Amino acid sequence: MRYMLIMEAPESMAMGGPDAPPAEEVFEAMGRYNTDLVEAGVLLAADGLTPSADGFVVTHDGEAPTVTDGPFTEAKELIAGFWILEVASRAEAEQWARRCPIGPGVRLQVRRIAEMSDLEDVAPAEVLDAEATLRRRLAENEAEREQV
């Protein structure tokens, strides 16, 4: 099973922000956590995100998409980073989530990533076939990137 751990934090806690903990402590704690995930063989991907001033939002009003540049001051919490884990159970995902070195004011949302089997009773067969083809192509692309 794959799970995504989504770190939500106020923008003011971004690196260098007024509510941010000392950077050295944060980097050391996250480094230890990420090392533990890699050594356990459960980490598939992880990254932090830059402040919302570097981002944008695309909305659709029914006629055409609209792009709005950040920062997103109306949001109380923003996604600050994420991990994708492959674990044997929800309980294992919870154990890893509890170990994540988030501090006060930070929230970690944990969501199971849908598998193809979750869609079998919902999506039409041709959609499932097309999705399987896309996933094979993605795997082939990844294999090609690794050869370079």
From TrEMBL:
It comes from the Bacteria. Pfam families: YCII. InterPro entries: Dimeric_a/b-barrel (IPR011008), YCII (IPR005545). Residues 1-104 form the YCII-related domain. Belongs to the YciI family. This is YciI family protein.
